[in-house]
Predict the structure of Adenylosuccinate lyase.
Amino acid sequence: MTSLPPQPLSPLDGRYRPAVGELGEYLSEAGLNRARVEVEAEWLIALTDRSLFGTSPLADADKERLRALYLEFGQAEIDWLAEKESVTRHDVKAVEYLVRDRLSTLGLDAIAELTHFACTSEDINSTSYALTVQRAVQRVWLPKLRAVIAALTELAVNHRDAAMLSRTHGQPATPSTMGKELGVFAWRLARVADQIEGGEYLAKFSGATGTWSAHLSAAPDVDWPEVSRAFIEGLGLDFNILTTQIESHDWQVELYDRVRHAGGILHNLATDIWTYISIGYFTQIPVAGATGSSTMPHKINPIRFENAEANLEISGGLLGTLSQTLVTSRLQRDLTDSTTQRNIGVAFGHSLLALDNLQRGLTEISLAEDVLLADLDQNWEVLAEAIQTVVRAEIAAGRSQISDPYALLKDLTRGRRVGAPELAEFVRGLDIGDEAKQRLLALTPATYDGLASQLVDELG
């Protein structure tokens, strides 16, 4: 058997790449290295802007050329770094050498010794990870989550009046509307999305053990914490002043737990939609040319929701591992975080793939309102709640002498199917006021949905 040509090991880089490839701009090795070059270049600009160590601020043209190192970062830089790292065995050191090499090319050798000045690798890494994760979340993942929320909201509004039988514990229960039930998911997801959007992205820039010791030895009169703060905040990040060698990763733990929380809600959505399809509440819109089953031509399998379900489980597991691992570092530094963080893109990739499937799946279903109405008409016993509640109100108002309305309705309906005629006969024989009796007689399962329709308006 001949060997295959080199193949992607992960399906995210194979069959699913079209759905998740945009994350590679930020959460790939190349994306991380580009951010590292950005941090190194901007640190050079920050130091020279303050005229430290006899330097002068760079001319605008020189700043543009320096920034082009990361703005135009491409295959040549990727290859250069791979070759250099094979010698250095240190990824951040390879980036430093790249910047020094390009400074020489740009004629900026005079500031070369300020490259990576007083930095530990984790100053560069914590800032680079904060930048790449922030951009991936804000530019790719969160917009996709918002798109799913928008699709859910549209469905909720469209089906706000579509009465349906609820199934608490899988059993017939007080009716709702499909719009309200979908609205619950949109409401839950929007709340978590807002929490994610308001999260911090922290970086440190304080040297080998977070004390600015090297900085002060070189320039004791400089307010280095303020220099570092201004630098980090100038990159659009939040500054962590009190750290060990590493930034403590708590912001990452918070973010990944929230993303995992969103994934749990999305998983709940996927299994509920799957169940609604299985009982006929939703029909699936055929996609031209698609095959549902290799042997049963009639089938349209709910693959979008099944795919989402599985990928959310994979993503949730990885995010949970990230949170559990990153919250701890032995003493001032260990390397468990280094290899763990290389899987951030994998975790977000499976989550993004799930979101893509959900977004598409929600456009490929159609509500079967006739099935919903037929189901309601077969379950008149759900009105027992309304009847016993009205009877209680009548007793409280002194218009009824019934002693135990709950037991009365339990004897009539529990474990039994009761139709419209039986319920009407029962209501007519109740010891309650005429007005209450007429309200109950006018009620049907399809109209016993309370404020379900109006609740959809809460989505805004």
